[in-house]
Amino acid sequence: MVDTAGGEEPGRLWREVAGATAGSDYARAYASRFDSLAATGRDVHGEAAFVTGVAAPGAHVLDAGCGTGRVGARLQDLGHPVVGVDVDPAMIEVAGERRPDVLWVVADLAALDLPEAFDVVVAAGNVVPLVGAGSAPAAVAALARHLRPGGLLVAGFGLTSSQLPPEVPPVALSAYDEMCERAGLRLVSRHAGWAGDPYDGGGYAVSVHRAPGGDTADGGD
User: Which of 68, 127, 137, 215 could connect to 123 by a Cys-Cys bridge, CB 3.0–4.6 Å?
Assistant: First the structure.
């Protein structure tokens, strides 16, 4: 999660949201919330299942805005080498404690510069609106630069105020598509959620964009 709009500290918007809902120990509280949901039998791995459905077996995945690592850890278990990136050191610390077998990196998505490229970049958990309006174009461009030819950017986020924390302004799909287009990506598919149903104009969308080049014979089309 990133917010560098107007020269503000990276991650400011995310920390405001997290601190308001969970207090100073927000990172562990965030992870524990999903543990509790899983303990009730709820499937908390829809994002990873979706990514596995559009990616080739063993695809190298960047979990952008990884938080405490729920999505990235599951993808690693499903056979995808993963690197997780988040601007928040507290979230990365928890991710590392839980899954030391995954590489977790503290970095600002808007200034991301890793020494490798990926088959898939996934930005789940409202990462796009949480980066802030001023930083979102730079973040999308940076994520696009980390895609291999033909690679996929998969992003899911709420589109209305009712789908987002009160502090977070919505990002219109048209604005997001324009950011992706400027970064050289084209829209492949759009879905109403991580279950993969076609997008119906509702308040949440999962968008799949593709980088130019490469072999496009996968589940993303």
Answer: 127
